[in-house]
Each structure stands twice: as structure tokens, then as C-alpha cells.
Design goal:
By secondary structure, the chain is of the alpha+beta class. The chain is 25% helix and 33% strand. It contains one helix and five strands. Strands 1, 2, 3, 4 and 5 form a five-stranded antiparallel sheet that branches.
Length: 104
């Protein structure tokens, strides 16, 4: 993980929430890159973050996570992943459609 322990108290504060989203983004990119290398059968994968979605991370009764949509491109192929990250844990990259397409 590339971030220190982050407490969720006060995450409803927009600046703190944005900081948490930004802090976890490198891990989301890394998870998409690793999954892309396998799915695209390509060692040279580039990623682009398309969007970031999060709920109220201060609400203790919900799953506290940020979901990044990340496009992975390499070896003339492309695919999009939904990468779910939770504070103080690993990120999981899941194929949005299960398909790999030819890059344009």
C-alpha cells in the first residue's frame, strides 16, 4: 500500500475525502495495470483513470470504498476495469464487461 493508516473519522469533510480518494488512486492504477497485463497478455500496459465514485466514507454502516473506472491499454488491445479500494486494504480490479477490444 502506498498510503499510511487513514482514519475514517471526519471523511465527510470534502477536503479530507478528496485527499483519501487521491491517496488510494495509485493503488487502483497498480491493480488495473497488473490485471491488464494478464488480460491483455501484454507487459507494456498504460492506464487512464476515467472516473472516481465514492459514497459517504464516514458512515460506519456502509462499505467504505472508492470505485475507480480505469482503462488499460497495451499491445493494440484495451479493456476497462472497476477497481474497488478500501482504506488500509488492497484494491481489486474487476473487468466491467469481461471483454477485451482492439484499441483504435
Amino acid at each position: 500500500m502506498t498510503f499510511a493508516a487513514v482514519t475514517l473519522a471526519g471523511c465527510s469533510n470534502p477536503e479530507r475525502l478528496q485527499g483519501l480518494v487521491e491517496t488510494m488512486e495509485p493503488d487502483a492504477i497498480q491493480a488495473a495495470m497488473e490485471r491488464g497485463r494478464t488480460d491483455l497478455n501484454c507487459g507494456a500496459v498504460k492506464t487512464t483513470v476515467l472516473s472516481r465514485e465514492h459514497g459517504d466514507l464516514a458512515n460506519q454502516y456502509n462499505l467504505h470504498r472508492v470505485v475507480y473506472r480505469v482503462e488499460a491499454t497495451g499491445c493494440k488491445l484495451t479493456t476497462i476495469y472497476a477497481v474497488a479500494c478500501v482504506p488500509n486494504a488492497v484494491c481489486s480490479a474487476i473487468s466491467e464487461s469481461g471483454t477485451v477490444q482492439r484499441a483504435q
